[in-house]
Amino acid sequence: MRRTRLTAAMVAAAVVSGTLALASPASADPTPAGTFRQLVGVGSDTTQDVLNALAGDKVAENSYADTAVKSTAGAGIASYDAIGSATIQTRSGGTTFNRPNGSGPGRTALSMSLTGDLFPNATGVSVKSQVDFARSSGGPSVSGTALTYIPFARDAVGVAVRGSGLDTLTVDQLHDVYAAGSDHKVNGQTVHPVLPQSGSGTRKFFLGAIGLNENTVDTSITTVQENQADTALTADGTLVPFSVGSWIAQNNDIAPDHSKDAVAAGAHLASVTLPGDTGATSPVTTVNGKLSPVGGYYENATFGRDVYNVVPTRAIDPSSVFFDKDIYDVFVTSGTHEAALASDAAEGVIAKFGFVNESYNGSVNLAKHAKVGGLEISGLEAKTPAAPALKTTLGDASVKLAWTPASPAPAQPVTDYRVTLLGADGGVVATKDVPATTTSYTFSGLATGTYTASVAAANLIGTGDAASWTGAVKYASTTKATTATAAYGVAPKVAVTVTGTHGVVPTGKVTVKEGATTLGTGTLSSVGKVTVSLSNHLTVATHTLTVSYAGAAQLNSSSATVSLKVTKATPAVTATAPASVGHTARAKVTVKVTATGTTPAGTVRVYEGTRIIATGTLSAGKVTITLPKLAKGKHTLHAFYAGSTTVVSKNGANFVVKST
C-alpha cells in the first residue's frame, strides 16, 4: 500500500542532509558485466537511469541493491541503456543484437521479440523472446491492443538553453524556430535549435507539444542524443528539448551527468509561457540548493507527460495462456495487487530521479492514463483471425465447443483461442484462453438455463470475430430399450426406460423409428417408463430401431438403438372331407389355414403319402379342392400349406377318405 509519496523536493533535502551518497557517473547495463535477469527492458534514454536503479544496479556509483524491485517469485529487472556498446545480449546464450536507442526502437524491439521478426530491419537478427518490456517516454505510435503502456511516473519536457536571451520562451516561438522554413530567430536573435535523435520519445512529444511533426519540422536541424546537454548546447543561442526529470537527476548528481560542461557554460532550463497563462513558468525550482520539479509545469497538459513501461498485453492478462506473473507483479497495479514499481520504496527511488509519482502509477485502467497500442513493425499486416467454424455438443449440465480454424490463416498466425460463456442476462459465466493447438473446450457443472457460448481466435494483432452458439443447457438423460422376438401378425413391443441425472425424473414422449419411418410413440409414465406397441405387419426380418427421447425442460434428449426380430407366423391347417365317396365320383376337400393377426395366402397341396394328388390356392384363408377319382379302398390323405413370405409352411392332420 502507498503510505507516503516521496517528491524530488524531499530527495533534494535528503541530499543536503547527507542521507544520500553522491558519486561520479557510471554506465548501467546490468552489473556486473554478463549479468542476466529475467525481465529485460530496453528503449527510452529518459527513464533508463531510474530503471537501472530500480533494477538494483549502481547508477552514478550509487548502489541501489537494497531497493531492487523483484516479482514475488524473485524475478528481477535487467535494464539496458539506450546508448553504450553497439550491441547487447539479454539472455544467456541468446542472440546478440543492435542496442535499441530511444522509445521507438525499444518498442520495436519488444514487438519483434513477440513476432520473431528481424531487428532492427530485414538485415538484422531475430530477437524472438529477447525483450520483455520497453521503456517509453511517449504513447503508442500504432493503433491496436497488442501492447499496454503502463504509467510509470510523471515527467515534463522543458527546453534547455544556453544564453540569457532565451530565458523565457513561448509555444509560438518554439513552433516558429523548429518549423520548416524557419529563419531561426527569437526576438530578432539568431538561435540554433537542436533536436534529439530519430526515434526519441522526447523528440516526438516535443514536436507534438509545439504543433509540429516529422513532416513539418525543419529537417536541417542538428540532432544529438537526447538528454545530453554537453553535446547539444555547445554555443550561446542554442536550445534543445530536454526531459526535466533527467535534467534534475543529472544536475543533482543522481544520474550519470551528460550536462556538466554545458551548465558550467551557462546552460539552464528556460521558463515557458504555458498555453492559457500570462506569465512564464519554470520547470524546476531549487530546494536547499538542489533542483526539484515544479508541479504546475509537470501537470500541464502541453509539456507534462506520463512516461511508461510497455509490456505485451497478453502477458498481464491473468486469463491468458501467455500470462506472465513476474511481469504482472513488477509492473501492474490492479485492485488490491500493487505493482512492485509502485511501492513506497520504488517511488522513493523514482522521486530521486526527478520524476513525480502519481496515484495511477502501475494502473492498467485505460481511464487512468494507461494506453494500448499495436505492434511497432514496419509493413506488418495488422489483421486479426477470422471466426473459426464452430460445432457444439450438449452434455450433462455442460456444453462442448469444437472448432476448425478459419482458412486462409492470417499473416500473423493464431496464438490462442478465447472461449467465453455468457448467461441469459449477458453476464460472463466463464472464460478460458487455450493454446492455438487446442480445438475444443467444455464448460461443465452448469445450472440449467439458456447460454451463449463463443470462441474467437487471437494473434499478436488482437482477437478476431467470434463464432457463437445460443441454446439451452440441461441435464443428461439416458434411454434404454428392450424387445422380444415377435411373430408376424403379433404386435411387437418395445419396453423403454428413460432416466435423468441430478434426480430429475423424465417426462414426455419417446419415438420409435426405423430409418426415417416412425413406427410408434409413447408417453413416459411417472417413473420414466413406457411400452410402445408397433405394427403387427412389420416385415419378417431383423429390424434396427432407434428409440428417441425428445427431452424436457431440464433434460437433454437421448436415444438408444435396439434390434427387433420378426419371424414368420405359425399357421394352423385344417381339412374337411367326406368319409366316403364312390369310386367313380370325385370328392371335394375344404382346407382352411389360419394364423394369429394375419390371413394366410398361398398354395395348398393334398398328399397321399408323398404323392401330390391335388392342389389349390387359398382365398381369404380357405380353398376347396376337388380330388381325382380314387381307387376302391381307404385312402389316408393330408393337406400341406406351402407357406408364404409371412407365414411358415405347415402339414395338416391326416384324414381318411373311403372309395366304394
UniProtKB/TrEMBL annotation:
Domain Fibronectin type-III: 384-478
Keyword Signal set for record: yes
A biological process term (GO) from this entry: polysaccharide catabolic process
SMART domains in UniProt: FN3 (SM00060)
Keyword Signal: yes
SUPFAM superfamilies per the UniProt record, alphabetical: Fibronectin type III, Periplasmic binding protein-like II
GO molecular-function terms, A-Z: hydrolase activity, acting on glycosyl bonds
Keywords from the UniProt entry: Carbohydrate metabolism, Glycosidase, Hydrolase, Polysaccharide degradation, Signal
The name this protein goes by in its record: Fibronectin type-III domain-containing protein
Organism phylogeny: Bacteria, Bacillati, Actinomycetota, Actinomycetes, Kitasatosporales
